[in-house]
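Researcher: Re-running this chain for the archive, since the previous output was lost when a drive failed. Same request as before.
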Amino acid sequence: MKKIIITVITGLVFVSAGYAQSQDLTELFNIYAQEEGFSYIYMGKGYSELKRSVSDDFAKDFSSVKFVKILSSEKPKDIRVKDVISTLKAYLAGEEFELIFKMVEKNKEKIEIYLKRSNKKDLEKIIIMETTKDVRITWIYGEGK
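Model: Regenerated structure tokens:
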């Protein structure tokens, strides 16, 4: 119960802060990455070098990406998961992300892809995928072409 209250309060702090910078999004991922019921994956720019031994095409495709962060949970109805999604959507609205793709299959799956270009060079994509079995939030940050 304490964890839920702390999580909700933390979420409210994020929303009220308005998410002035992507650093706040990093903080959101970091907080929930530590919570029980969530999984977290980080792939930095050096990941393309690791994958180069498997596929040069992958390394080329990944070369403009600075990082990928994935936060997921297999408990889509958990209040903390719903809190992450509502907090994230408040951030996206405040940071002027554009919804570029949305797919809804009633009672099964929902996918939303948001895009933001900043300073004519950096590009951010947020992908929110919700199913009846899990929720996955992917943040891709890199250089636009």
